Amino acid sequence: MKALYIPSSSYHDMHAKTYAGWVKILEYQEAAIRQAGFDVTVVEVPENYIDDASSFSQIASYSLYVGIFSMMNKFDLIIGSPSYAHHAFFLNNNLPKRIGVVWNQADWFRDKQLQEEFERNDSDYPTLPINNLMNEVSLSLCDRVIANSHFVKKTHAELVPEEKISIAPWGVDSEMFFPATEKPPGLRVLFFGSNPIRKGLTYADRAVIDAGEAVSEFWVLGCSPEKLDVPENSKVRVLGMVPHAEVPEIIRQCHVLLLPTLEDGMPLAVQEAMACGVVPITTEVGAEAFDDCRSGFVVPYRDPGAITKCLKLLHDSPDLLNTMSREARRKAETQTWVKFVNAFASIIEEVMHDIP
Question: What's the pTM value of the predicted model, to 2 decimals?
Fold first, then answer.
């Protein structure tokens, strides 16, 4: 059997592979398709076919090229992100089987969360209704949708029947991400994310300030310095973007991962922090990876006060911090990429065997 796999354009981008840890998940997905018994084709779209006028036009031109390719060749399965597989799904309305892969919350949830956030900052939120409509139609054409968390499934169930959505939870490399033998004194807090608005940096920074002496240092990783609006103080250290190979060492030098994200999928940073014995504090978006109050803390959206209470508790209770650190590592060790590949492959096999 032959499968056309349509990942994002980052699959072939060496810069993205160097700096974005999530890109390797595209390779795990391809491995799962092969495990399910397919010969896999991944199209590398020539640069001169990509319209660089905007991010939307880049994705649309990529999708159109791959869609045309899908019509010129015979495949038994088309699988990929709805954004990048729009035209392949549209142009193959009857055959072959189609599977959409979703990582983040559905468009309606993203827009609801971020539009409110932009309004709080007196800014206009840049919506793309036509893209949302194309995504919705793409999902409706799929025989199955694969989500990476129950929360992602719940938001997409507003668009397609819930029984059409399966879950393949992400894993973490516990040999690459492991705890430090010694921790620095104090309570060093890490924020990790490339989009400060979406990831809730404003609320993280407010909570750290309000925590006072409970927090010794606040490291900000992944954001370009020019994107930041973090007050200068002695606690803040802006690390910017670093190659992903350097990320484990940075994480394990910290005690707490603070990620009050407003909209996301299953933040990979949460599982990577847990594997390093770093206690995560995050919203319901990233909470599925741990047990609340045992291996991490779940806090409400836009609530720096709740975050501050968690930080002070961990500072005042070193034994609790150590216990939660060990439990976070133990929990992370059960979440492997082998499990992810096996789950992903099983869903594909189910679709091919059980759906007419």
Answer: 0.94
